[in-house]
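Hi there, hope your week has been kind to you so far. Do you reckon you could talk me through the fold, stretch by stretch? I've dropped the whole record in just underneath, so have a look:
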Amino acid sequence: MGKITRRDFIKKSGMGTAAFMIVPNVVLGRSHGHVAPSDKLNIAGVGVGGMGRRNLQKMSTENIVALCDVDWKYAGKTFNDYPNARRFKDWRVMLDEMGKSIDAVLVATPDHTHACVAAHAMTLGKHVYVQKPLTHSVYEARLLTRLAKKYKVATQMGNQGNSFDWCRQVSEWIWNDEIGEVREVHCWTDRPIWPQGLMKPTDTPPCPETLDWNLFIGPAEMRPYHPSYTPWNWRGWYDFGTGALGDMACHIMDPAVWALGIKYPTSVIASSSLSNLYSPPHAEVITYTFPARPKKGKGKMPEVKVHWYDGCLMPPRPEELKDGEMMGDENGGIIFVGSKGKIMTGCYGMNPTLLPLDRMKDFKQPDPILPRVKGGNGDIWNTEAHEQDWIRACKESPENRVEASSNFQHSGPFTEMVDMGVIAVRLAGLYGLHRTLQWDGENMCFTNISPNDKIKIVNHDDFKVIDGDPRFDRRFGEFNAIEAAAEWVKHTYHNGFSLPDMPKD
């Protein structure tokens, strides 16, 4: 198959920037129990073998018209779910051939291809739902945020806890000054649950016939096929994923972003287990500092430090917890430390509680002030709330739309912060930059790295026992720090893939 460029499929589809408008429900009579065929979105799924399948199941109120995946064996179950949907391996071909009949696109590919698919879909006027983390780089997150605003499409990042009442309750408690000024937040996860800290494989097994390896690689640097890269374990490779931070922070840190109104941090410092050039470390600790913000309700918003822990590392145990009382839940949690008390949640912001736990016995919930999402008070594992909130937004006109809860104006800057933390870890390490890094969020750059700063990163790590003696073979590559940081902020695209231009804000 020949190379298909963005220009090709825009020209061939005749769509340009025009969006297919969906007739509002009220016009078609949903209030009278009738759903007209034209009232359903035509949805295409890109990356449908894993989480994409679960998302599509929760979107099946609509027409699933196209399925795209580079691995047709992995996607086989999803293909069987929707036998009438057209099948593709290349999303560019899909948009070229079906652009006029697609209203919205689900993107659940590996992290490194999120932005490419979503950005081009938006320039064609398609609504997009993109799995978390929204993007693989800081620049990509900024791009999707601005494209969503320019093309006025409905957007949603797939951090499903965002649609639940818990996030809103935490915000309302803090805005009602229930725990006073929050200057410290701790967030943690048990991830990674996939292999990390790996060296690049050197063997070259044959690629399965059902997998298009070139399309999996996409804009990353080409390398031989290896089963350690895909499926799913791509999260543990820098070229394809963002490790535990990228995977889980968009879930766990979301209530803090909401409640505290934080956006761009001013500084960050990171430490980790041994890091290498190819794969995120087994465990890491990151501290972001955010400047003071305007007051929210009764709650003052002073400078706040947000601490992140993964790899089963944990923050200090609150003294308010009794012996035997679990901190967070089995997947992680958050602790907000205020001047008058503390709030603790589980992963996804689940089950928020004041500390000590018995403080909840006489606690009077403040009046709700944030709108709730329909279905956002049920079982997070078995609800369609997050997907259906996006579908609702897709069907509303841009002029009167109530944006989906985790639309890109919220999730874009949020993801920038997460992706920047990934970079901070890569710049730290044994022979990294031993300093707190100052961050200019508006310009997407660190401001206290000099042109002469060097970092050394492990690029070979071997250990053997020979005749009872341990033999270490650990080598380092040297890199210019400011050049490395710039590359990680905005990845170079390879193999003919590209992004649309950055719109002016």
Observations:
- The longest helix spans residues 408-427.
- The radius of gyration is 23 Å.
- The longest strand covers residues 454-466.
